User: Fold this.
Amino acid sequence: MVWAAIAKGFKSRLHIYDSEDIPSIKDQQEIITQANTLLKKRTQARQEAAHHSDTEEFSILQAVNANIQQQNIDEGHSGRHRKRPRKAEQLFKERPVPFRITQGGVNWSVYRQTVCEEILYPFVQEIKAATGFDTIYLVEDNAPCHQTVQRVDKERRQGLGLHTLKWPSNSPDLNKIERCWDPMKNDISTYQFIGASMETVASAQVVDVRSYYSLA
Assistant:
């Protein structure tokens, strides 16, 4: 499994996942606990903010309840059939990150540490420094690890000026990075990976790296 990012005139470092990327179970538990502590604090802050008229949360809550009230009028709901207004505790609530530990493959903590922290965020800063842009738009699919990091790193990404575009399901061809993957797959298509030795895997990785950096 590989990861890379491209922008007009820019290409990130290619990352190839391997077993060394996976934190220990203890480290993963600590990462998940820290993330849930952050989400809990954010939830409490937004619920508190919803009670103050000069906040975005207050405006959102008022708009939602005004819409509910109008629905009751338009649809003739009254009494016990009437839709009840929302409370801040209902509207502003971050669901916790589940304690799903991986012993292989990529979960959100691996993606966050090995890709976002080490490659993506520095890549964004590189583009901003070179172009003077304040905002960078990121296209990534709806993989669970992507969505979780979007939630956990919300403030971090806002501080970087990094905004993730809404992504329609089952539409990978809209992402220009897909044009990189096809020639890379073709270059290693002759390799047989079932039961392959470590030397074979390493050789294929070298080919993939060369293929990626040779792309215009």
Q: What stands out?
A: Residues 25-49 form the longest helix (25 residues). The chain has two domains: 2-19+103-214, 23-101. Helices lie at 25-49, 56-75, 88-91, 108-131, 144-152, 154-160, 178-187, 198-214. The CA atoms of residues 71 and 77 lie 8 Å apart.
